[in-house]
Amino acid sequence: MSKAFRCLWFLLIVRPVVRLLIGVAVFGREHLKLDRPTIIIANHNSHLDALVLMDLFPLRALNSVRPVAAADYFTRHPVTNFIWRACMNVLPIRRDKVSKTHNPLKAMIDALDAGQSIILFPEGTRGEPEQLSKFQTGIAHLVAKRPDVPVVPVFMRNLGFSLPRGDLILVPLFCDVFIGRPRHFSGDRQTIMSHVADCFAKLQALAERLRPSDLPEDDR
Predict the structure, then answer these.
(1) Which residue, of 15, 27, 125, 154, has the greatest Cβ tally within 10 A?
(2) DSSP state of 133
(3) Pairwise CA distance, residues 220 & 158, whole Å
(4) How far is residue 21's CA from residue 144's CA, in Å, rounded to a whole number?
């Protein structure tokens, strides 16, 4: 039942909003191939972020891609709980009462071990529109646990202006998605975090150099 809801959700709601109302150009789509479990890391400015990222995948892949989200925020109301769980395949993570026996990393590791890919926002929460916030170290701990899992960095531009934090009105504004090549990080926590920051810095610099007209014609 969830699979059917998910397909209808994306066909009837997500894709018309993302592709027609907003409009998204994609650079580096060839790097997003889910032939194995993958960790997709992206900047986070809007509730639209997860929708846009999920829409990059074909419908048949939606059951194997799970955005990581805070359980206390998205599951507190029955309607939003249904939308995010049944329609978006969200992997809910509790942020309270974290301990060795209740570690939010376990759910992400279990998902990867089950053959699923996850979407993770290293900033932890939505920041100011079009500004990168400090990355949380959770990604370093996850990569250290599963170093063989590829990490694909994604930088999104203008979604923070289309639907910024606290706003309920969607502003149609053309947005760009820049996808980096899959990476494998190693080293201690500080080294991994440095690599993550470097990936986003390079994608952000690429975004600043490219105009929409420079993007692949098929994605405009």
Answers:
(1) 154
(2) P
(3) 15
(4) 40
Q: Which domains does the chain have, with CATH numbers?
A: 2-219 (3.40.1130.10)
Please report the pLDDT score of residue 211 as a whole number. Answer: 62
> Max alpha carbon distance in the chain (Å)?
51
Give residue 158's pLDDT. Answer: 85
Read off the tokens for 181. 């090549």
Q: Does the CA dihedral 175-55-2-39 come out positive or negative?
A: negative
d(CA 161, CA 181) in angstroms, rounded, equals: 26
Write down the pTM of the prediction.
0.84
Task: Spell out the SS3 assignment of 4-47.
Answer: HHHHHHHHHHHHHHHHHHHCEEEECHHHCCCCCCCEEEECCCEC
Cα angle for residues 183, 184, 187 (degrees, 5° grid): 135
